[in-house]
Amino acid sequence: MTETAALPGVHRHWILAGCMLAMFMAAIEVTIVATAMPTIIADLGGFSQFGWVFSIYLLTQAVSVPLYGRLADIWGRKRLLFIGVSLFLLGSVLCGLAHTMTWLILFRAFQGLGAGAIMPLTSTIVADIYSPRERASVQGWLSSVWGIAAIIGPLSGAWLVQHADWSLIFWVNVPIGLLAMLLLARFLPDPRRQRDVHLNITGSCWLMISVTALLVALLQAEALGYWLLLFLLLALLAGWRLSVHERQAATPLFPVAIWRSQAVVAGNMGNLIIGATMMGISAFLPTWIQGINGGSPLQAGSALAMMSIGWPLASTLSGRLMLKSSYRVTAQLGAALLIAGSALLLMLRPDSGMVQAGFTAFLIGTGMGMTSTTFLVSVQNHARYEIRGICTASIMFSRMLGSALGTAVMGAVLNLNLAQRLPQVVDPMQKLMTPESRQSLSTETLQHWTTQMAASLHWVFGVALLIALMAAVVAWQMPRQRPEEQ
Questions:
Q1: What is the chain's percent helix, strand, coil content, to nearest 5?
Q2: I need a surface site. Which of 86, 104, 415, 444 has the fewest CB within 10 A?
């Protein structure tokens, strides 16, 4: 039991509701903005800066996640979460007032800084107020937020830009965030914080430099060209300096206890793999449906939504399975589902129907939901209250880093294959995914291009399968314990 685990049941329910509202606000932001971007670009211009609207949000979020996690252990969860939600809401209001793409990108950075606190701290707070046995079930409720946001986001974004001004997609966050803060202010206690402990400023700077350089290199690899090597070198140098400093620091950002726990290390490795595998379907299954099958964006989105449905269902199921078996058995089953779904990606053909694509996405979603929840609950149950914030944050950060790595690696594999198979064609994928360009191609050219594109994407799916196989290796490292045995 922790300092907050003895709360009355009704208080815990309201705290859980507040955390779910805050998490929903941050989760829906990515999908709702993606749907509205064509309208925003038509109003503000700046199409060349389009990618940075998403990249800067992910960048500032990823950089700040470990810092918020450590600060929450030192200064208290409640204070840090309120700071994060306030930053997120401030960024949301300013985004709605932006009159150029440059200002929108700057204000999205504020949103990302806020989201960096919301995602790990809501999960940490829930872990604080529930016992190890209860966490296995409650984390399924938090995972359901992502599934709901993935479905509601595109629909609400499309409706808002069609019937109102695009600024509302940002301002809709304000009432949700204020309600979440009101609930948490009323029902969440503020336990005693550690005294005479200060943030490791030097280590924080080295961490930010290393992570920023690495993520910029991964997210902007094509645009950077040879500058990519400089950013990677900077990331390695800053990472080395952080490692040296951490061994000497009185208050390290990542306490030694984290790396001595097999469960924590396995949980981080597992989420790195999940993040990378997820990009194999999130980024490239819609590309297959629209570019190879000639499907519509709605069909691609519908197939991908099946992953968002499978994730929370499996997450809830994994909570019950952990209580009856163990962390290891549950993680192994999730890894098997993840591998099976990734293998089905390789079985896609140009004439494959939407049902097959949707089932594949659903299977991968179930595997991700089961493994991610098991890894998270195991880490939180093995972490003491004093380091639970940074342990939870490390899980979130590992998944973000995995997504960036997966995008970079699989994107490079696709581009390399296309350069070899269609050397004379500039951006063939874009031509196949645009209905007008696709219809202008002759039957012979269309068949040749789709055949080569399919072969290239199969190489990408092959990489996704290899990464998924690594999840099975990590699953074997999980403890043979049930949550209540801790």
A1: 85, 0, 15
A2: 444
